[in-house]
Amino acid sequence: MYKRIFDKCPDGIIVTDMNGRILKANKSACKLFGYKKDELIGKYTFEFSIKSKFRKDLKIFRNLAERGFAIHETYIKNKNGKIIPVEIVAFTLGKNSAVGFIKDITQRKELWKEMIAEKERFKTIIESMEDGLVVVRKDRVIQLMNRALRREFGNAVGKKCHEIFFDRNAPCPDCLLEKIIEEGEVVIRERKPKNGKIYLCTSSRFRNPDGSFSRVTIMKDITELKNKEKELEKKIKELEEFYEMAVDRELRMIELKKEIERLKEELLKFKKLTQKHS
After folding, report:
1. What's the confidence (pLDDT) of residue 247?
2. Which stretches within the chain are classed as H helix?
3. How many domains does the chain have?
4. How far apart are CA 145 and CA 112, in angstroms?
5. Is residue 25 part of a domain?
6. 98 and 173 in one domain?
7. Vertex 88, ends 41 and 47: CA angle to 5°?
8. Domain housing 278
9. pLDDT one-digit tens code per residue, 94-144
10. What is the DSSP string of 84-123?
11. Do the domain assignments include residue 111?
12. pTM of the entire predicted model
């Protein structure tokens, strides 16, 4: 049964003496190292180490001697010269031998690289945004601020949002953080923090890696738009007043014209009457 498990295990398994000389190896180990079983038996594990990891790889046997087990991540070089990232879990079998389970972690490494690259891309996007972005925990502590907001308010990660944006010692009376986090509601509203600018703030719930929720807010500076809106409203009001004045003047002109016509008619009647009695 144990021999069957040994042979069928998808991870490489080798048994060595305490000097690293290979005594036994399963099929997966042979495939990983690129050798036939009779070629692999008798070789030393350090023969597969790459130069940059050699000294570190030798420490695995020191840890085995001192603690009885070791977990080690390294790279091996197989028969064809291919460099393979591996994770080794080893423990002693008595005083004179040890067993090592060797897992090819190429896929894990590639996924990790992709995750790191994706994280960097995400960070680049956030940092290059013209709009401000801030993430705030339920306790109102700032988790993240992008460059646009750091320019306006300084790097305030770890500080309370109401202190940084509004110079308040307590949460804002109209704060909707709990509603956004607990109900998942998206809130869009205008806010005017201590820098005097007006922002259109879009807030929504954000799930953290540990499963907890925070509030993420995108803050778009609309100060210039609001100022132009005020100017436009002022001009519209002036035009409306001018129009009312012009209409009023026009009405008065019409009335005046009617009055002139009436007076002309009266004058004509008077002339006729005068001519009749002359």
Report:
1. 73
2. 2-8, 27-33, 37-40, 54-67, 106-128, 147-153, 161-166, 177-183, 223-276
3. 3
4. 25
5. yes
6. no
7. 40
8. 230-278
9. 888 889 999 999 999 999 999 899 889 988 999 999 999 999 999 999 999
10. EEEEEEEEEETTTEEEEEEEE-HHHHHHHHHHHHHHHHHH
11. no
12. 0.60
Q: How confident is the model over 21-55, as pLDDT tens digits?
A: 999 999 999 999 999 999 999 999 888 988 888 88
The answer to whether position 84 is within a domain reads: yes
Residue 256 belongs to some domain of the structure: yes
Q: Which two tokens stand for residue 67?
A: 């603690």
Is 247 found in the same domain as 162?
no
Using alpha carbons only, give the angle 110, 113, 119 rounded to the nearest 5 degrees: 140
Q: Name the pairing type of β-strands 97-104 and 199-207.
A: unpaired
Cα–Cα dist 276/271, whole Å: 9
| Beta carbons of 98 and 90 less than 8 angstroms apart | yes
What is the spatial distance between Cα 196 and Cα 201, in angstroms, rounded to a whole number? Answer: 15
In whole angstroms, give the CA distance from residue 141 to residue 267. 88
> Mean pLDDT, to the nearest integer, of 197-201?
95
Whichever domain contains 46, its CATH number is 3.30.450.20
